[in-house]
Amino acid sequence: MTTAANKSILSYFTWAFVVTVAGLALGAWLGWSMTGTIGGLATAFFICAVLAVLEISLSFDNAIVNANKLKDMTPAWQRRFLTWGIVIAVFGMRIVFPLAIVAIAAHIGPIEALMLAATEPSEYARIMNEAHLPIAAFGGTFLMMVGLNYFFDQEKDVHWIAALERQMSHFASIKGIEIAFVLVLILIFTSLLDAAEATTFLYSAIYGLLTFLAIELIGSLLDASQKTMSTAAKGGVGAFIYLEVLDASFSFDGVIGAFALTQNLFVIAIGLGIGAMYVRSMTIMLVEKGTLAEYRYLEHGAFYAILILSVIMYCQTLMHIPEVVTGLGGATLIGISFWSSVRYNRREKAEIQD
Predict the structure, then answer these.
(1) DSSP label at 93?
(2) Which residue of 173, 208, 254, 288 is 20 to 30 Å from 264, comparing CA positions?
(3) Backbone phi and psi for residue 15, each to the nearest 5 degrees, phi listed first
(4) Domain range spanning residue 329?
(5) Residue 18 domain-assigned?
(6) Closest CA to 265 of 253, 255, 274
(7) Does residue 179 lie within any of the structural domains?
(8) Nearest Cα to 165, choosing from 152, 174, 175, 177?
(9) Pair 280, 61: CB distance under 8 Å
(10) Quick check: is 230 in a domain?
(11) How far apart are CA 151 and CA 33, in angstroms?
């Protein structure tokens, strides 16, 4: 049986490659069936490919954070997340979630929302774009709490940007400091919006904060009662919910940004779904090969990328920020943290040899 140690990196992406081929073929067929032209086929094919790359670039940090959480879960719950979780991620967040937003915003049923997406994509896209503010406020707040919760930790003893992270670890002794920081930022951005938008932003951001705290509470309750739980369930439910909401928060930006390329819900779902499969493959590789332990600053880069993404989502309520900035910013931070890890490993190896 092939072990994780001798599995090649490419072998982890086998299913992602299969889904890529199938997805691009489906996208091309969709373009042909809608237009009946080679140009329409090529356009749909190209947009699906671009959306897949967009999703991958936006989700490097998502894969790393998923792996960080998964390594502490039982094998049973790891399998559940990597099977059920990917179904929820691809179909729930890329198809059902946008339909639900339009249904709620337009006060119509889910079937009517689906028909609207199929027959009036421009109107569908308009409603989605109008819903961007509450989505950005909710997702930005949740992601900000995820990032701050990582750095405001008294037990954290590995620091990448040492001067900053030591201070954050020190101030973690102040109860609720990360919540206070987020609330202050919410108030600042609320003051920069007009009255109607400010109210929407405030409520959505508070809901994002409460969602994070509720999931933390569920995890704490599960930890406290784990003696009476079966081994397969220990910490699994709370971690599963946490990862699903985390994936949702990461997906908001990609789903909304996709409408800048196409207004066709089905093309968006195919492109982003291909990208989601690569995120799943990266997550499995990171867990099985122990990459997070081998590269000590990789997690740091991912959580810094999360914090930057959360601030960008807040700023998007005031101005348009291209998705390429978001994707490249996160990928750059992770790349720098990876290089820092490599340099650290080389220094350690050199000291041992000396």
Answers:
(1) I
(2) 208
(3) -70, -35
(4) 10-87+129-348
(5) yes
(6) 255
(7) yes
(8) 152
(9) no
(10) yes
(11) 50
